[in-house]
């Protein structure tokens, strides 16, 4: 039991929140790379990403895991993104700080998705049982390159309206 629900249900809720965060985040980042603001999608992305990290801490662990470290880093990056967006309103240097922090937060989610996929999906696990094999490294490398390209496009094209 975790927070009064079965571990299975808690895991399902966590995964659903994570997938919502990733889909909303991809929509937001592609929007930024296209020069568009998407306030509702952005709010959903940020809220779901925060919930993803917070619910990740609810799983029973006897020691600090890589997932906990990624969750802590994600929350730190999200705090910067929230401050840049909602306090500083994307003005001046806060525009690029927001863009980079939002994209890094999304990349953390995708990074964990790839890790979990190679751990839990049989066919992927067979290809990279220790996650040090080329298929895992290629998947993570491709994801990183995609996010770097999206970040460059977003930094060049995203220009929020002055509030």
Question: Which properties best describe this structure?
Answer:
163 residues, 0% strand, mainly alpha, 6 helices
SSE blueprint and pairings:
Elements: H1 7-33, H2 39-56, H3 66-87, H4 93-120, H5 122-127, H6 134-157
Helix pairs in contact: 1-2, 1-4, 1-6, 2-3, 3-4, 4-6
Describe the fold and architecture:
The protein is mainly α and 163 residues long. It has one domain (7-157). The protein has six helices and no strands. The chain has helices at residues 7-33, 39-56, 66-87, 93-120, 122-127, 134-157. Helix 4 (93-120) runs antiparallel to helix 6 (134-157). The radius of gyration is 17 Å and the shape is globular. The termini are far apart.
Poorly predicted runs: none
SSE topology string: HHHHHH
Fraction in helix: over 70%
The beta-strand count equals 0
Strand-residue proportion: under 5%
Number of helices: 6
Q: How many domain units?
A: 1
| End-to-end C-alpha gap | 46 Å
Structural class: mainly alpha
Largest sheet: none
Mean pLDDT across all residues, rounded? 94
Coarse shape? globular
Rg over CA atoms:
17 Å
């Amino acid at each position: 039991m975790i927070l009064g629900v079965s571990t299975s249900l808690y895991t399902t809720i966590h995964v659903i929140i994570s997938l919502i965060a990733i889909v909303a985040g991809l929509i937001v980042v592609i929007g930024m790379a296209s020069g568009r603001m998407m306030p509702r999608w952005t709010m959903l992305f940020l809220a779901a990403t925060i919930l993803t990290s917070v619910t990740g801490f609810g799983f029973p662990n006897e020691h600090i895991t890589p997932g906990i470290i990624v969750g802590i880093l994600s929350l730190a990056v999200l705090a910067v993104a929230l401050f840049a967006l909602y306090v500083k309103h994307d003005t001046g240097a806060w525009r690029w700080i927001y863009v980079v922090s939002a994209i890094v937060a999304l990349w953390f989610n995708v990074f964990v998705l790839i890790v979990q996929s190679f751990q839990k999906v049989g066919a992927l696990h067979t290809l990279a049982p220790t996650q040090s094999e080329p298929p895992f490294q290629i998947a993570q490398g491709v994801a990183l390159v995609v996010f770097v390209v999206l970040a460059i496009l977003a930094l060049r094209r995203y220009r929020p309206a002055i509030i």
